[in-house]
Amino acid sequence: MSPRKLAAVGVAVIAALGPAMLAAQQGMGEYSAVTEQRLLNPESHNWLMYRGNYSGWGYSPLDRITPANVKKLVPVWTFSTGVTEGHQSPPIVNNGIMFVTTPQQQVFALNAKTGDLLWRYKKDLPEDLLQLHPTNRGVALWEDRVYVGTVDAHVVALDAKTGKVVWDTTVDDYKNGYYFTLAPLVAKGKVMVGTSGGELGIRGYIAAFDAKDGKPAWKTYTIPGPGEPGHETWQGDAWKTGGVSVWLTGHYDPQLNLSFWGTGNAAPWPGDMHPGDNLYSSSVIALDVDTGKIRGHHQYHWNDSWDWDEVSTPLLIDFRKDGRTIKGLVHPGRNGYLWRLERLTDGIKFVDARPFVVQEVFTGIDPVSGRPSYDSERKPRTGAAITFCPGLWGGKDWTPAGYNPKTNYLYIPANENLCSTMTGMQGPYEPGKLFVGVDRPKSSMSWRQGATHIGELQAWDMATGRRVWTHKFQSQNWGPILTTGGGLVFLGGTNDRNFRAFDAKTGSQLWQFRTNSGITGVPSSFAVDGVQYIAVQSGWGVDAQRMQARLDTFLGTKTEVPQGGVVWVFALRD
Known about the structure:
There is one protein chain. By secondary structure, the chain is mainly beta. It has a five-stranded mixed sheet, with no helix packed on it. It is globular and about 60 Å long.
């Protein structure tokens, strides 16, 4: 056997034995099985899924940390992940056991009170893997297992006590551009994931697998094929390589038995390369959890030409309008509009939409359908250099918004005053290679004239549909939202590496702490032995870093944001 093969065998043996050995050394003890009932009604002291509950609120009912005492918040333990790039997953906590993922396909199980390592899983990734977005956004829990989607297009089930692989299902071929970045959604015994890779010319889809054995349950394409409703919105063979990725975890309404998913833009980026409305790009779609059948959709903008993925899943928020309670879907879009929709058994209905940042592309919104009309001079096309605002990263990118039921406010991590210039350029499709249709050296980012800031934290009252306060940052903002029953909003996201707390009602900044790196991780809150903790991963990279590089080019500056992943856990000093 060659030395290289022998080394590979050695790594595989260590990877197989390591989790069990570490678990034995540290001693996990009893593990609380995560039942369907617990996911439907998660305990306040836990954080059992990506956004804390199936509605996607990013809200913890815990109230020990308040505006009156948050200044006493201090770090109580940290854990270094050993890798760089964008750390974006939330610390998931089940009765004192924390699970967190990192770039390079690691899963850590930690003692949530002390930070002690219980086990580590690290997947052996292919040497020829193209990691366009080297990140992972977290795990899902079900019974005594931990589920993770991988950057080489697998779904893996791990034993929650030991980290050993229970099953490993190859979902697609990474060589054709398919990969996963999202945390899986688990409901009714099914593990659901959506494919990334739209910028590589895939045909996106959402797939479900049996949580027990990993066998396929259903598969639903986000681009309709021949004979399916919506196929007529694509011309020629554009549907075969049309992208429409699903980058983020879906949300779930158990009463309607529907899961909701945000979808990405069509590929390549300029719309004249894929004429038509291009369903179901830049949309929210409702899928029957049992069958995968599409029960409804709303397209935020048709024939996407701006790389405005609308991948953030709408939050399930019920609100009052015109004297009735609407079972709502609320989505602050990458296109810069705040959308309020109604979720129905067999459809999604438009309610209203208004811009939350300056938007120079839309000339109007149809009051019944919600279909926008465009300024044609702001729509990128082949052979022309087109400038549009907001730019290609949008008014809000993938970073999740949050909702606090006590204030009835939606909190949006926004970016204002940014514009892009894009030049369309035809290019051939090659499996596994970039297929964006843009002359990248001629593309640029700029500020709106007179701008003095970029990042914003906005609060919108769901009773009125109006903005109530805004906190501005000079830096861009890539901070996912955590809000709490104690009346606070937490987020990082700025290039100064600070993690901050705000008064949820007034927007006053109350506390900040500078971490090792910039924060694009999703914060969570949990309690052990009656003590409330706030947890977040720090680790700058991916799009936040790429935006910074574009801004530095435009401004003639050089901004250094240190990299390196660290889990930070905070509690009150007393």
